[in-house]
Amino acid sequence: MAITTTETCPLCGTDDVRVDDVAWFAVAFERRAELLSDVDVQDAVVFLCRECGVTWD
Fold first, then answer.
1. CA–CA separation, 33 and 11 (whole Å)
2. Which residues pair with 48 in a beta bridge?
3. How many CB atoms lie within 10 A of CB 32?
């Protein structure tokens, strides 16, 4: 059974946040490994507050 919780903004405390999944874009070129060497794609979920605009992971 999965347990879910509501994510709240660490700045203003609202629960009006969304998930910005930046890992959806995959580079399909020969240089993919070179381009993604600096990015940790596995933990690339970022939360965005719709009230104050702050982002966090």
1. 35
2. 18, 55
3. 11
Of the candidates 15, 38, 36, the residue with the CA atom closest to the CA atom of residue 27 = 36
What's the pLDDT tens digit per position in 20-39? Answer: 766 655 556 666 677 666 65
Residue 26 structure tokens:
């995959």
Radius of gyration of the chain (CA): 15
Per DSSP, the residues of 16-41 read: -EEEEEGGG----STTHHHHTTT--G
Is the pTM higher than 0.70?
no
CB 41 within 8 A of CB 23: yes
